[in-house]
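Question (not urgent): is this output format expected?
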Amino acid sequence: MLTITEALFDQIVAHARQDHPDEACGVVAGPAGTGRPERFIPMLNAARSPTFYEFDSGDLLKLYREMDDRDEEPVVIYHSHTATEAYPSRTDLAYANEPGAHYVLVSTADTDDAGPFQFRSYRIVEGEVTEEEVKVVQSY
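Got this back:
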């Protein structure tokens, strides 16, 4: 189960809506070994595409060095789907290389700034997808 604060949940959704019609992407880091998402880090979709996301390799290297210096790890890796449901694509599976992370997908398909959206979380290990419950809390 992914337990996430309402503030982080809202930030992820706002980023997905802001970047629509392109896919948004980012990370929520947390203290290593805790599994607790704490620090919201929106990233630039280097592909600038409505059907694909890609972290800029330089930005990603900088992020991992920063997390290492802060004794953090990527707890949530998120991105949006702008025209399809919030379910990992084959490309998403190919890029899922953090077995301990929660992979969050937000679908902004059939939505406007205030419209409905899907927010779903998955574990992806060796290409196997398992959806998990999302529990939104006020604070930890």
